[in-house]
Structures
1.
Amino acid sequence: MLITENTRDFICDNIDRLEDGELTFRGQRLTSLAKKYGTPLYLYDEEKIREKCRAYLGAVKAGFGSRAKVLYASKAASFKRLYEIMREEGMGIDVVSRGEIYTAHRAGFDLQNAYFHSNNKTDEDIEYAIDKGVGYFVADNAEELYAIERIAGAKDKACRVLLRITPGIDPHTYAAVATGKVDSKFGSAIETGQAMEITKVALSLPHVTLRGFHCHVGSQIFDAEIYLMTSRVMLDFVKDVYESLGYLADELDLGGGLGVRYIESQPTLDIASVILSVSDALKAHADELGITLPVICFEPGRSIVADAGLTLYTVGTVKDIPGYKTYVSVDGGMTDNPRYALYGSPYTILPVIASESEDREVSVVGRCCESGDILQEGVMLPSDTKRGDLLACLTTGAYHYSMASNYNRIPRPPVVILTKDSDYLAVRRESVEDVASLDL
Ligand SMILES: *Cc1c(COP(=O)(O)O)cnc(C)c1O
């Protein structure tokens, strides 16, 4: 691969290549990081995470006023240091499990600013969240509202609740991550009348303080029109509820889902312009409907952390199957990145050291005993790629560490965070003893 002006143009501005051919991330040499921490290795660019938080916060405050909120959907990447960064940046968070609540609590995050999601909170989850002082529940259905009522009632507490509403919008994205359609395991649909029904239920329960509505129509959305449609449908619902039940929502949470650039052919979305176009449209629509706009929340996960992440691997076996293809195996795989196996997600994979030899098409695969353990097919890598070479998979900050597993009893990689001129460990590498530590 020759270094040309063209190959210097990377999908994100924190990636670059030095004159000597080495790839850098946030200005740091990847060979040094690999030597210091080993591979596979998750790297995060702290400045990029903070830049994204500020882009969202700046835009929502400019568009919707100072009470508007940005909640980081922490399922995208959840570990203590990340919650500290969210706290420092003035972000709220969304959490979906006791593990996330516990981690945020350990990071000193004020859980009053946490919203507890999930389509199936167990009684233990609800009790734990109340005891830890989680500020808001996002209730998925009527059954859950009754459970919150029962548990909060027994503790003589009231819970602030948003209701997860399904606006009936198909964001034309991957089926597995499309959740705004009526047929979904998430939320209660406007179309079926269930949304109005659970609103009635919520208003009737003494230990439930209804705060408003929530929706999240899907993920990896590039078309701002989806948000305009969704927010209009949701505001219409707010108005309908006001007319039918006399209840005016205080908060309207429009979810997350903004797309990020994994490969060159995808665009880079400008966060501020998407938010500002939603705010223009929503303000105009609120005027048309003659209602006060509720406090608006956005709940991005992927677009906060995805391109702040990069995974480093070391090449092992390179296998040519004449007449078929070439497999380049790395020391990680579906255990640190299950997204190709789950959704066929595209990625950009680059050699850390540029080579003069011609590129050829290969499949980059993991080390697990599973033929679906593929990181990416159709990757162009130098034909002299060999054992010991380093590869970088870009845009791995979202749904990688958080989806990692110990399949084949493979220990999970560490998380190292880069600042402009230093690096520090945020999560240490798992050992084989860690992996076996629960066995009695
Ligand atoms: C996953 C999820 C998000 C974040 O989605 P991204 O695509 O990562 O921005 C926000 N809200 C809810 C309810 C979610 O389930």
2.
Amino acid sequence: MNQFDINFDYQHIWHPYSSMINPLPCYSVVSAKGVYLKLNNGKKIIDGMSSWWSAIHGYNHPILNKALKKQIKKMSHVMFGGITHPSATALARKLIYLTPKNLDCVFFSDSGSVAIEVAIKMLIQYWQALGQKRKIFLTFRHGYHGDTFAAMSVSDPKNSIHKIYNHFLPKNFFADSPISSFHDKWNENDLLSFQKIIKTHSSKIAGVILEPIVQGVGGMKFYHPKCLKKIKILCDYYSIPLIFDEIATGFGRTGKLFAFEHANIVPDILCLGKAITAGTLTLAVTISSRNIADTISNSKVGCFMHGPTYMGNPLACAVANANIKILQKNEWKIQVSKIEKQLCQDLLPLLNHKNVVDVRILGAIGVVECMRIVNIESIQKFFVKNGVWIRPFKQLIYIVPPYIINSKELSILTKSIKEALDNPLFFI
Ligand SMILES: *Cc1c(COP(=O)(O)O)cnc(C)c1O
């Protein structure tokens, strides 16, 4: 990008979580292939972020591109009210097949946050159908469920960007987040706060909403599967529906197709997004149990009241179908477990680094928690110069690379992290 273009960008375009007066530097990407992003100056950098957990098979994938081209020749879009189409039907069929038996009814939307709004609206209507005005949700602190209002209202109330809007948000219940990490011993005390709230307020709680196993934006923590098992028992006991937000973790990232499989339990509502189109188009789904769908449908209102304009977009559904076909070849399992092994080899030794508090690895997720907050501008410049794209936040340097990354490319990512840790000027 020439200077004029970059200045135009700075003056006129909002970027995620950014300022219009003091924007962080932006890099112009002109194309992408495999694990590489190509910058406007011709430099190629390895994407360690999979475009925020989504581009799991890498960029410009021939099978995904072919599916898009095939669909575009038929139609790019058609309204979903009163109309259906083969790509949506095929995708719903695949999703129902891939998910546990009780998850049976698919609602398509355009983004993860909206999939969460939909799940929350479903439970509001579910309780109304049962003659109860329940509206309070129970979740963990340090969660993240998106940037729209209901999603913000169940995201961490204190430490998140959302505290700015707190006075506008519905009030929900927040239990202490679990401390026992995925690989640690389970500590029964982890659920004391959750159990106390659910027991005291069981007749008011409309639903429990959680990110299973991985708390993402809230701190990149991996908690113990036993925690989910016990929560499922509590939810069943008090007849409170359970929503799982697998928008980040779905489609293999943690080593299981869905993170809740680590705990061998199933939710009543499942939200999927991000990797569902393997990083090509925006799409999300909210899949509910037959019981929830039927209860809503048997109510006086009788309908579920949501319907985005681009609902079930054929291009997005077509490419999601192709993504799932690739996943069903099961190469992802080998790819993710290879990445996990190498992340352990390359990153765990950093535990001894004086700048490091913790190193966490699960599936194709590698997290280095630093002593101090990262200076994003200077560290990003260093990473780009080193040929990698890594975007830390707060004191967390993490990577979620495309599953197709090879060991040489992955070691370039991990080496860059190690080198960055050695420079105290990259930390505030
Ligand atoms: C990204 C994310 C969302 C929000 O999805 P968008 O598509 O950005 O709206 C919700 N929950 C989790 C766990 C996420 O990682």
3.
Amino acid sequence: MKTTLFTLAAAGVVYAQTQTSYGQCGGNTWLGPSACPTGQYCSGGNDYYSGCVPGTAPPTSTRPKPTATRAPASGKRVKYAGVNIAGFDFGCDTTGTCGASSAFPPGSKGVGQMNHFVTDDGLNAFRLPVSWQYLVNGVLGGSINANNLAIYDKLVQACIASGAALCEIDIHNYARWNGKIIGQDSGAPTNAQFASFWGSLAAKYANNNKVAFGIMNEPHDLDINLWATTVQAAVTAIRQAGATTNYVLIPGTNYASAGQFLDNGSGAALLPVHNPDGTFTNIIFDVHKYLDSDNSGTHPQCTTNNSAVFTTLGNWLRTNKRSAFLTETGGGPTDTTCYTNLCQQFETMNSYNDVYFGWIGWAAGQFDPSYVLSEVPTQNSDGSWADVPLVTKCVAGEFNGDSS
Ligand SMILES: *[C@@H]1O[C@H](CO)[C@@H](O)[C@H](O)[C@H]1NC(C)=O
Ligand SMILES: *[C@@H]1O[C@H](CO)[C@@H](O)[C@H](O)[C@H]1NC(C)=O
């Protein structure tokens, strides 16, 4: 194992070697070869182990492919739509306390889901949550851990290989490290430490514009003006690391709430965040919005279509010539109140497609299909996939114009 890891690190990734007959070719944390010898294929046994077996791979899907890029009925649509592929963030709570060992890599399950969402549903964007602690293996101020990054990078590379147009790295820490607010609490990470972390990470993906940098998941209960200086430090570090054109997604407070982005001062505080050359190019506001009674994303019923929220924010974005991306939203996967309201929310966003990049539903990946906001597709024994109705009708349906 050590030898394999060393080789991979030295080669700068790539899992191009061919495995021996009946050898391991996959699994959540597998870093060895994924190719099987002639006459064998890689059979996914479970999340932890896939092995080379004789024969040819069965088709992954028997469903007809959608005709490419259908336009919605309105004739307008956002650029990006997809689903969060969660797992590397598991174990993080809202205090930003994340055990590096609680991460649950989506592995071959996540890869299969992304390939399905692109091929069968015409979706094109995935958000890949991961904790800061995981990427530095629990050492604040430490350098990026090569082994952990290689495991996470497998998911990023699989996203790119799926044909998706956008793969977002999301640092899922609520603006904190183990309870302390970055740049605000004593004993907390400094802005310089956060910026240095982002500079190192950005340098690794600087040559790929499909990779977007979601600098932080859901900041909350902090000083928004101080937070804006933290965000500025990260943006500057990302650009100085050579990632001059990747999208950088920047969130406000109140858990990145779209509804409170203007009321609570996030918009005003973040508007001046700029590139080193003074421009705002490819700096995008990152917002979240749920549709349940308290906007928490913990109830299956949807009580609002958020039309007013996305109209007000959309008008502000137009006035300021900026864009936003809704990177978390969702509802009960089989709840009819959500079919109506989530679809209407997306219709409003489609009508503002000049300022909204799109939406990414929460969530698939390692969640159990029984999860209250599950967008987890299930694979049938013949290799075909079944989506939850909310994905079919709204997440994909409103993107492809076939929700009804
Ligand atoms: C944020 O804005 C909402 C209105 O959208 C308001 O009810 C709430 O008190 C505000 N919270 C803070 C901390 O400013
Ligand atoms: C959202 O709901 C309101 C009523 O609550 C309605 O007036 C509006 O048309 C709906 N938006 C869409 C896009 O259907």
4.
Amino acid sequence: MKELWSNSIRGLEPYSPGEQQAIDRLIKLNTNENPYPPSAAVLSALRDAVNADLRLYPDPEGKALKQTIADMHGLDPANVFVGNGSDEVLAHAFFALLKHELPILFPDVSYSFYPVYCALYGIKYETVPLDDNFRVNVADYARPNGGIVLPNPNAPTGMALRPDQFRSLLERCRNSVVAVDEAYVDFGADSLVPLVKEFPNLLVVQTLSKSRSLAGLRVGFAIGDANLIAALDLVKGCFNSYPLDRLALAGAVAALRDREYFETTRAQVVESREWLAKELSMLGFQVLPSSANFIFARHPLHDALEVQQQLREKKILVRHFTQQRIAGFLRISVGTDEECRRLVEAMRGILRDSGSRP
Ligand SMILES: *Cc1c(COP(=O)(O)O)cnc(C)c1O
């Protein structure tokens, strides 16, 4: 039947997201969603937006949302692009800014969507190995390239770089776009948004899915020089005039305005992360230092895939990646205190029952 398919899609492999199960009382620590609900102001804005205006198309430019984001950073709306989740924003960035003669660069251990976009758009890429401690070494990226994509904090390691480390990279790579995926930045890293005015080649991508508890609403955005934003707007205008619907626009503005709720919930997630990291270390896990809302850890004596499956039997989902370099690790999203406590309890039981194996 594939004769009916376009040639260009025949070899494509889609990104595989963590499973979304509707099992009762499941503890879901596999897709880095926020364990806390969206702010009450968001829910109320959404309810208000459920009205007869839904017969009308939404604002194609999302002006109110762009303005809200620009105001937060003392920038102009022309420095802001908004899209249907940061995955869509990233997809447009790959096509609009990262397809050149030279290959683009990203880490060997990173967000597994990047190679998927490259395959979709026919973009050449090279991966740059993390060092033995799973750190990004920015000096490794200072070579001829068609662009650079770096998540900060990196996924799935959770480890972050400091802005001064990026500064040297941005200075050395002025002729290519450096796209920094800040999906998890609010949980403990410093954003590069303040560097946007200084570096016309820097694109910062953020999302409301994680730190704003809105994975279900699908809102992401990019901040950068107006020239980069114009390229994204052009591609978006050739693809979908209305990527953000009326509800998404209303909810996103309300979420960004509720600073207090944001600060409270992110502090809570950070506190739970530290507790979880400490408990897992005491169970013998090697825990990478996380600046995100998840923990990346391996146990020297236990098979990660087996532990994942045993947790699953106890109705706790965590994520395991088959990529060889990280196959010994589990990525565990930070849940509520109660969820973290139950995860640790379950883990203790599993490690005890299965005994230590080399
Ligand atoms: C979650 C995530 C995204 C995508 O988030 P959206 O829900 O599409 O906004 C992008 N990059 C990384 C590294 C992520 O973990």
